[in-house]
Amino acid sequence: MEQEREIKTYMMYFIWIMNKLLIFNKSDEEGCRVCQGELYYYFDIEHDILIKECGTCSSWYHGKSDNTIKEFTKNIRPATRTDLIDNKISWNA
Length: 93
Description:
By secondary structure, the protein is α+β, with helices and mostly antiparallel strands.
């Protein structure tokens, strides 16, 4: 039972690290207007727009205009570098 608990803890930590590495963010250049937390880019497939989410307070912003978003479709995926380039958002990687 103890070994199973250690594996679950390890896997949760591993998934957290992979999310940090795979989801593009620009924490050095910008932060959430509410709490200054890290912002992560997502792509709304249905509306073809970039969306930013705060990793701390879960506020949502439009990728280009920085307006707060109240409602959007749940059909989103993590943004790729191509999504950022196509939407003319600079990315220094």
